[in-house]
Amino acid sequence: AGSGAGADMRTEISTAAAFVTRLLRAAGGVGEEQLRCFRECLQEAMREHYRHHWFPLVPSKGSGYRCIRINHKMDPLIGKAAGMIGLSHERLFQLLPSELTLWVDPFEVSYRIGEDGSICVLYESPQPGVKAAKQLESRTSCKEEWRIGRSSPSKSYNMMTVSS
């Protein structure tokens, strides 16, 4: 598409739609053809919704507007795509996490499951014109967080067992 707002959000949108589709697939009971249709419908709904709310020069601008959220209420974009394949909101609540937040921003797509969960980055791309140092201090991925959180208790435990 042309330049300016919404010029290229394909990667971010397809990453986000693929993630929600994976969650549905993992829950089971939804056919592959339905999932493919759901994913396409969700991407289309997101493209439409974000069209004038995509600011690559100020990635955080409009972040709340682009945020996809399930929290005892179904996100309208997910609900719309699910409706196209005949999934009710009730069914969606059974298949998807009851609390899910998905941030779709230029250069970064991240999510959190549960209100207190860690924020995990699904997609990250260097922002043109931003110094590399800024990139390094961005959030650690879930895997890193998990590894850091896991390794410390076992080490101290090993030290205690050594002294006898």
Question: What do you see in this structure?
Answer:
- This protein is α+β, with helices and mostly antiparallel strands.
- The protein has a single domain, classed as Actin, Chain A, domain 4 (Alpha-Beta Complex).
- The protein has helices spanning 10-27, 32-50, 63-66, 76-84, 89-95, 132-136, 142-162, and strands spanning 68-71, 99-105, 108-113, 120-124.
- A hairpin with a 2-residue loop joins β2 and β3.
- α1 packs antiparallel against α2 (32-50) and α2 crosses α4 (76-84).
- The longest helix is centred in the last third of the chain and has 21 residues, at 142-162.
Structure summarized in a few sentences:
It holds the Pfam family BTG. The chain is built from seven helices and four strands, in the order αααβααβββαα.
Write the layout of secondary structure elements.
Layout: H1 10-27, H2 32-50, H3 63-66, E1 68-71, H4 76-84, H5 89-95, E2 99-105, E3 108-113, E4 120-124, H6 132-136, H7 142-162
Antiparallel strand pairs: 1-2, 2-3, 3-4
Task: Please give a handful of descriptors for the protein shown.
164 residues, alpha+beta, Actin, Chain A, domain 4, globular, BTG-like_sf, Anti_prolifrtn, BTG, BTG1 protein
